[in-house]
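Review session, final week

We close the course with one last complete record, chosen because it touches almost every idea we covered. It is 16S rRNA (Guanine(966)-N(2))-methyltransferase RsmD, a protein from Georgenia wutianyii with 182 residues. Go through it on your own first, then we will talk.
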Amino acid sequence: MTRIVAGTAGGRRLTVPQGATRPTSERVREALFSRLEHQGVVDGARVLDLYAGSGALGLEAASRGAVAVTLVDSAKPAAAACRRNAATLGLRQVEVHATTVRSYLAGTPTTAYDLVLIDPPYDVEEETLDELLGLLVPWLAPGAVVVVERSRRSPEPTWPDGLEASDDRRYGDTTLWFASTT
């Protein structure tokens, strides 16, 4: 069972699409958002959740006070689950884009995001992730925070100009890499 950890929708269940979706564990989400809230990053933020799956990360941010959340996933079942979850939770500040991450980021930036959460499938190659991080930079607000979730066995992402690594945290088989705009 996947549920929202805290905030206005805390404790409510999420629909998880069938298939290859790997929702971020509740333990990891709780630790991640505790850290981000301590840093004052979530409340009032504009959030981008790439490879959204069920939308758990972006919806958690919306539940905790983000003013705008964009969920991006190319899989139709995932996008449908994101829409259903946002509607069921009454989180009107959430919009869903059923497109590839590359296509979304290749577009003209329409929002300067304060927080970006990237949880690609573990089989996304490092070179692809590096390319996407480069495409992401023009979409970032000054002082933005980017979090990349990967397998513990994955190397640290190659951060492009405009992003500087700040920390990493390990939780079981999951590593969270943090960077911020320079």
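Two points worth writing down before the exam:
The two ends are 38 Å apart (CA to CA).
The chain has a mean pLDDT of 95.
Good luck, everyone.
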